[in-house]
Amino acid sequence: MANRSPRDLIDFVYRPIEGLSDTLERKLGMFSVVIISLSAMLGSGLFVLPALVMVDMGGGTVPVAGIWLAYLLAALAILPAAVSKGELSTAMPSSGGSYVYIERTFGPLVGTVAGAGLWGASMLKSAFALIGFKAYLWSLEELLNITINIELAAIILLALITVINILGVTRIKKIQTPVVTIMVLFLAILCLWSVFTLDMNWGAAFGEGAYGTRWEDVAHASAFVFVAYAGVTKIAAVGGEIKNPSRNIPYGMILSLLIACALYVIISIVMVSAVEPTGYLNESGEAREDPIYVFAEMVGGTTAGVVSAVFAVTVLTSLALASLMATSRFPFAMARDNLLPEALENVHPRFQTPHLAIVGTSVAMGLSITLLPVEEIAKLASGFKIMIFMTINASVIVLRRASDTHSWYRPEWKSPMYPYIQIFGILSGAVLLYVMGMTAVIGGLACATVGLLIYFFYGKSRAHPMLTPWRTVRTELTNASQAEREKRWLVFHTVAGMKPKYSQQMSEGEFVHAMSIIAPHLERFHVRNLFHEIDIDGNGIIDIDEFLLGIDEDNLFDGVSESE
């Protein structure tokens, strides 16, 4: 790579942490973070997936009972991403979540791909949540003696949750708190009721043959239930609306993940101990998509089954409510970065919510419900979600490596066991992609293609080239001298930009500050002498050209030799 002149470097844009401030109001505390995260997880993972996972772990034919292991392994696989997001969120407590972290690390191109893909994947999963309760509706149809149009019911619920989202996050919290609380209590009662009233076969979940016949079956089942935990990090997408984000986001995500994992493991063990795996198959020998109804009916009869169906519809609607909130923040954040039309950045003057982004996402969900095979497409999108989590882990490694140069990266909470937990997250994600096969690859490529089209046809002409942390790390590995030059430009830009009104000029005091970063070994008087040497006209200020040309290696180390 050829060395650039000082003037060439001016073309790069550095976005300090001050540029991440939001106009959204911070209203959510720790309890709200946990509730919203749980509501984004405890939906299909409990009410739809268990029977499907039983069959999947059994090799696709015979259901097995050891699905608790799949839930546990999936939680371990997603834990690094939750920890990494916890660190990233305290450095960038901004609405947009994963998109913001990836865009700030790798630049507009990768950011657009990530943002568009995240929006599409999350939107489709939200749409799927609204039609995923269809298996539970038959009991309500029988009870009420009516015929329910599933698509129409989904559209009506979609309109309702759109209005709630526009009204604000506090209203979402007020709805989801009782929903999540009552759901957990109901499931706890069912489990305890089964323990005291049924002849439980506890060995079913742990005995021979409980985990299928091949390790690949366990791995594939773990990849299958991975989506059950994907919602744990969605709360980071509304980071700009969370109080004390440096504490509430990381600890809230980790706590909600632990709670969800415990619920998944315990409930799945009780379910297969109370009802044989074959009991979760329909008359055609296929996995039923209403396993909680089967479990509840076995424990408490038809009445308990109907109650479980009502809870299923309510919980899956709550999941869509939380998902719409998080999903709408992706286009909001992208519009703020000029990668999507600026109208999507508008915030409602009364409710302080990105109402146009919410409505746009809602319309897309409605079209998906009515026009697309949402279930199949949502499965394809899972592969892209895994890729995103791998990239999130990589972002922490890149930002830590580049933090000396990109001084804005100062997370208030740091990941434990760095970088080993991030490497584990990347490797485990690769394993999940491998066992998922071509489905994951196709889904990932499809989402990436949409992002590339948006970037090259809209965002590229509006996005400024950035001196990103990834560029810094890459240059350090391939061209050390150029990396040092870009570091100095970045330091100048950062220090000079600290003034209330940005200036491309640096005073003596600012120069001293800059040199404390670039050459901390120099004594203050050497730095002052160097400034006056660079300031040829003696006007007390220097520009970028003088700065870069004046601080060559000889100047930086002369002071050391003289002092020694």
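That was protein one. Protein two is written in the same sequence-then-structure order:
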Amino acid sequence: MNYKELADMIFPDAKEISYYEEKYPVRNLPEGAIVSRFAPSPTGFVHIGGLYQALVAREVTKKTGGVFFLRVEDTDQKREVENGVTDIVNSLKDFDMAPDEGMISDTEEIGNYGPYKQSLRKDIYQSFAKYLLEQGKAYPCFCTTEELDETRKKQEAAKVRTGYYGVWAKCRNFNVEEAAEKIKNGEKYVIRFKSPGREDRKIKHHDVIKGNVEFPENDQDIIIIKSDGLPTYHFAHAVDDHLMRTTHVIRSDEWLSSVPLHLQLFQELGFRAPKYAHISPIMKNDNGNKRKLSKRKDQEAAVSYYKEEGIPANAVKEYLLNIANSTFENWRRANPDKDMDEFDFQLNKMSVSGALFDMVKLLDIGKTVISKMTAEEVYENALKWAEEYDKELAEMLQNKEYSLNVFGIERGNKKPRKDISKWADVKNSIIYMYDDKFLNRDISYDYGKISDKEEINKLLKSYIETFDIDDDKDTWFNKIKDVAEQHGYAREVKEFKANPDAFPGHVGDVSTVIRVALTGRQNTPDMYEIMRVLGRDSVIARLEKAVKA
């Protein structure tokens, strides 16, 4: 018996690899077009680092007229979680990053290079494993778990590298007939790659992000087909990235050490290797020490967190672009109104060290993103979020016409309001605008500089007498000045500053008293616009409530 006969025995139904080469031809794309992918495992929630990788892959493919696809690497089915694929698909949709090809639901896909679920590609992997067996580049391994544990203990005692390699690879120099007999007898086995590498030799490799790197050659005889017939990640990714015609593999730098093995697999399979770009992880400052964002420790590690908090998808994407390319911030400053897709994203401008996650910066971007929305857009987004996460807010927003007026305050100005960074902020930012939430609750009024209740009531009563909802803005403010002057306050702030001892305060202090009586807050958007939205009856009711308090 020879290698080919053994391969036929192990994989009797496997097609010739030429079949798959014809089925998945080289893509007809413009010169320089990049084909890349997001290839997560459905083993838990989607990490923000995964979304980061997907964004980077999508950006570089989009800029070159290439293809961004979603492949689900589900060969480790023992670790797969319920709805894991659905969560991945929905996470991309939520952030407007749906793939050009690949999985679009748990069971549906688009594109001509699928299946895009590795568990459905078993026949393909077996064909290429058979090819390696025929070439003498792979072999069946019958070692039990106990035997492998014993080998590891011997290696540790001898203080040598652990693993399945060289003299420690018990089944490496197998006898074909003996292997065939074991298989006939029903002994369990896996298929291992027969590495041609030597650890004392080095390989040099150029990573698109990391630059030139050097590693020892791989000499490990890794498992490529498990006993259940499914491939390991290492083997599956090589076959898939070749057949899906991937040009650039963009992934976390935890895989950087696997480059020697992966390049070796491509070489022995006769494939042209893609370019690798290894992204540094997103870090967090923890009491002065940097560490990776942790699934276990950090709520912001989960992509679902951003949806639950209502941080706009565009804000998250802008922030990730910000940490991906240091030039993005300057570009945005120079182009405040341009779509982020117009930014010339470059892989080679990514940092070789991990960027620090900054929630303050993200929320600041969120404020800017929301400030540029129309009242209609704010309303629709806030309502959509509230219907899922805040029923009270959803009820408040049922009166669409009124709510649009509320959201329209200071919107569309040269310097629009920036008091909302995420949809979870909305209720607190607008709740005082709803009479049933404001007039029917106890309010703790803090009027700032003016604290004497008798004085406050005098000012409010004077203003009530002069208030007219139909006043234009200049008339409205002049009336506040009149009230201030009537009670001895400086009509102008500059007048007060020139002679502070002559006045108990200035018109700004009086305005604050009115604002607090009206809203319960010292800081709000434009008070004139607030009054116009509230209407005369509500304004008077609120001022009178404050007098009685």
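The chain has a mean pLDDT of 95. Keep this in mind for the problem set.
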